[in-house]
Amino acid sequence: MRSVFENYTPVHIGAGEPNIAISQIGVTGMAGVISNVRVAVAIDHTYTSDLVVVLVAPDGQQRVLAMNVGGGGDDMLATFSDAAPFAIEVGQPPFAATYRPAEPLSDLGGDPNGVWQLVVIDQEWGDGGQLAAWAIEITTVESADGGHPIEVVFRGGLNAAQRAAFEQAADVWSSILRASVPPVHLGGDIIRGVRIEAAGIQIDGPAAILGRATYIALRPGSLVPATGIMEFDTADLANMEMQGNLVDVIVHEMGHVLGIGTLWKLKLLVAGSGTMNPTFLGAAAMQEFAALTGAAAPAPVPIANTGGPGTREGHWRESLFGHELMTGWVGIGANPLSRLTIASLADLGYAVDIDAADPYALPTSLELAIIGIGSDPTFEQCCTLGHGPEIGPVILPPESLV
Question: pLDDT tens across 32-49, in order?
């Protein structure tokens, strides 16, 4: 489950002696335990290095977001995420970007429900302003024995921010996948969800082959993946960090490890392969597609009819779905993960929380034209999300089930 909670009531920060501004957000209705936290702040202040900004969780845990940064500059319009490419210490006022906080948020854990506080401490005399607004995005996963854990095993070539982006992507999918899948014996271990080996490797430099992301071992019967691999060109990883779309790309590629696009043909869910109108035939996804289009009855979902083997017939059709997360190109800005995509996982055999989807509507033809869909795709400043060399899947024998 992923939810955003906001407070737009300004709190004064006095310009006289040192003082403290405190704003609260009440969080209710969230199930499971905290797996990821992001915080956005809007602080008007004429000397940001006077400030210490602290997040306080309902159980009293405290994390410093920013401490005495920005020199004599004005204002802080920052988002804090452990997966950000740069630490807040290297930013400059008004910090209008996403930064890693001074202290990590990813280990907060616990129950998200209760009163969260943002504390702004003005340590010096003479300058003031206000805490104008702030927001907190919380992702939760079910506790240990419920849900569908995704385990990421790092095999080198990734820096701390890149590893954090993988963990954040795993949290996104773990918040969507619900009931546990049958555990399996593999290589002396018991795998209860999906184990993904992740690495950064040198391939061919930026904007060519991104890497590969696919499942390796499939459970008998259901064909739900047990293991997978994600390898990225280190040059592309660096570019994605700079562009700010690293997490979206990793969430996208992890979706392929789970089977989105990669399992469709194996499960006989693609019609019209090789034609100009290939479609996806999953019943749940067709229902959601009808809801998006306002159709009276479920209809086959158009999938990619252009691109190479890593893109064609393994994604939603971008000329219709725009920048939905599981189209073949990553977009600048938001790439929403829709109910359609979550429903397609149900068609692959997963139990899902479809209400964990991001808000999404089909873009109009004008909107598609404005963002450049249908023209040269380099406008998106990314590369085709191909999956590199094919790795044939292994279907585990029935006796592997625990």
Answer: 778 789 999 999 999 999
Q: ∠ at Cα 33 (85, 35), nearest 5°?
A: 10
Q: How far apart, in whole angstroms, are the C-alpha atoms of residue 325 and residue 318?
A: 10
CA distance 148 to 169: 14
Residue 343 — φ and ψ, nearest 5°? Answer: -60, -35
**Predicted pLDDT at 110:** 74
Q: How far apart are CA 173 and CA 338, in angstroms?
A: 12
Alpha helix (H) residue ranges in 145-233: 160-174
**Tokens 């990225």 belong to residue:** 232
Q: Which long-range contacts (CB under 8 A, 24 or more apart) does 203-207 make?
A: 203/233, 203/235, 203/388, 204/233, 205/233, 205/235, 206/233, 206/235, 206/236, 206/238, 206/239, 206/383, 207/236, 207/239, 207/382, 207/383
Question: In a 10 Å sphere around its CB, with 0-12 CB exposed, 13-18 middle and 19+ buried, how is residue 279 labelled?
Answer: buried
- pLDDT of the residue at 390: 44
* CA 359 remoteness from chain centre: 14
Contact 234, 204 (CB under 8 A): no
User: Which of helix, strand or coil describes residue 196?
Assistant: strand
- Which portions of the chain are predicted below pLDDT 70? 1, 107, 109, 141-148, 179-180, 207-209, 331-332, 371-393, 402
Is there a contact between 130 and 21 (Cβ–Cβ < 8 Å)? yes
Residue 331 main-chain phi, psi, to 5 deg: -100, 160
Q: Could you give the CA distance from residue 8 to residue 208 in angstroms, rounded to a whole number?
A: 43
pLDDT by residue (tens digit) across 174-196? 888 876 677 888 877 778 789 99
How far apart are the C-alpha atoms of 347 and 229, rounded to whole Å?
A: 22
- The radius of gyration computed from the CA coordinates of the chain, to the nearest angstrom, equals 22
61, 181, 262 from 383: Cα distances, Å: 40, 34, 19
Q: pTM score, two decimals?
A: 0.65
The pLDDT score that the predictor gives to residue 148 is 59
Q: What pLDDT sits at residue 382?
A: 33
Let me know: does 240 contact 253? Beta carbons within 8 Å: no
